Amino acid sequence: MTSKLEQKENPQANGAVLPVVPGDGLASPERGQRAEPSDFLGPDGTAVEVVVLESRANAKGVREEDALLENGSQSNESDDTSTDRGPEPASPLKETSFSIGLQVLFPFLLAGFGTVAAGMVLDIVQHWDVFKYVTEVFILVPALLGLKGNLEMTLASRLSTAANIGQMDTPKELWKMITGNMALIQVQATVVGFLASIAAVVFGWIPDGHFSINHAVLLCASSVATAFIASLVLGMIMIGVIIGSRKMGINPDNVATPIAASLGDLITLALLSGISWGLYKELESKAYVNPLVCAFFIALLPIWIIIAKRNSATREVLYSGWEPVIIAMAISSVGGLILDRTVSDPNFAGMAVFTPVINGVGGNLVAVQASRISTYLHMSGVPGDSPEAAHRKCPSPCSTFCSSDVNSRSARVLFLLVVPGHLVFLYTISSMQGGHTTLTLIFIVFYMTAALLQVLILLYIADWMVHWMWSRNLDPDNFSIPYLTALGDLIGTGLLALSFHILWLIGDRDSDVGD
């Protein structure tokens, strides 16, 4: 008669009935000791059937319990005890159109009013002596205002992505990101400010054939000082905004870049106007002040380079992040040349107040979209992995604006904000009696057409550019936004200048396009 050893059922085990042959040995699953054959013999010495319960093994031969424990030990310390952990929470990818619009609306309006204030400032300072006699300062305006795209918006996008994927959760990681990135943008601001002044001198010299060494040094000192101070202030604001957004449960991608622009345009333009005016006054009596200012800020460069180089979070950008900011500066300078040539004509003096607005709104919206797409891709892997989302190299307009994925949804929301946003900003300018233009119906139609076309082009380019950079092993947070905001400056200034020229040619005298 054969007997059986009964054991309790285990839902995660497989049962196997094995005959025990004398001389065989079995390992006890609980004690890890070998059982002797005599332990499984009946009273008459015959063999018995033993039900051996085995743990399921995974494909690599590792016990399931051990694999789960191993995964748990490798995960970061958290209150979440779930063993089925994905790469990271994908909260930004579950947003509805309403939630995207609600989170973007307030920062968008705040940024827009910042550009309106910058436009009002430019409308006033264009009549100052330094802008009249050193007209190359106008060329600096888009290039330095574009620093918010080259530096601050890139910083905001980089920190937003780091916050969303959990790289700023501990105080040590947070401090590391702050110090490295602040040093990095000071290096970039000083270099870009210096190069922008050279571009302004060259672009100012080519049409007229006139060169003044005093004016060149003035442009250099004004540009470098403005870029350095503005980047320092805005960088600190950005860090506070991103930390606050995470604590409030708001996606930093939706708020950081617009807030960077809201104060960016106003602070940068106010600094440029004030610094250039002050240095222009000292040009005759104290000519040494301008080169001294240049030398001071350039002498600080080695300090910032050392700090950024020692930080692993910014070391790569310090070496490889120059191409986009320099090319973007050159693109914005071309927009500045258009502004200089247009505003210098008394017939188009009214364009000055609208230029920061149309450029700022377009740059803000495309920066939000680029930051969101970049975060979406970072949640799928690392640059160069070419996940499914990055395979598309030249998207169709329908896939960019009409598909059901979250990035297309956000593109539609951002595009729909253009008309109501600009109507609010135009009304604000009109109420404050800014500019030299009466808001007639035909002017509003031309202005809105230019604004819609600008944002439509930028959102499409962003969809293509971010995915293309990702497939080329380039981090879109560091490379895409400078190009996109610079293109926004160029396209916006060009379309606005074209609109003013058309209005002047068709004789819309009621709009008072001129002075």
TrEMBL record:
GO MF entries: inorganic cation transmembrane transporter activity; monoatomic cation transmembrane transporter activity
A GO cellular component entry from the record: plasma membrane
Keyword DNA-binding listed: no
Bilayer-spanning residue ranges: 104-124, 182-206, 212-243, 255-275, 287-307, 319-339, 411-429, 441-461, 481-506
Annotated region (Disordered), positions in chain: 1-43, 60-94
Subcellular location: Membrane
Membrane topology of the entry: Multi-pass membrane protein
Gene3D superfamilies named in the record: SLC41 divalent cation transporters, integral membrane domain
SLC41A/MgtE integral membrane domain boundaries: 141-275, 355-498
Coiled coil: none
GO biological process, one term: metal ion transport
Swiss-Prot/TrEMBL keywords: Ion transport, Magnesium, Membrane, Transmembrane, Transmembrane helix, Transport
Domain of life (superkingdom): Eukaryota
InterPro entries: SLC41_membr_dom, SLC41_membr_dom_sf, SLC41A1-3
Family: Belongs to the SLC41A transporter family.
Function: Acts as a magnesium transporter.
Xref: PANTHER family: DIVALENT CATION TRANSPORTER SOLUTE CARRIER FAMILY 41, SOLUTE CARRIER FAMILY 41 MEMBER 1
Full protein name: Solute carrier family 41 member
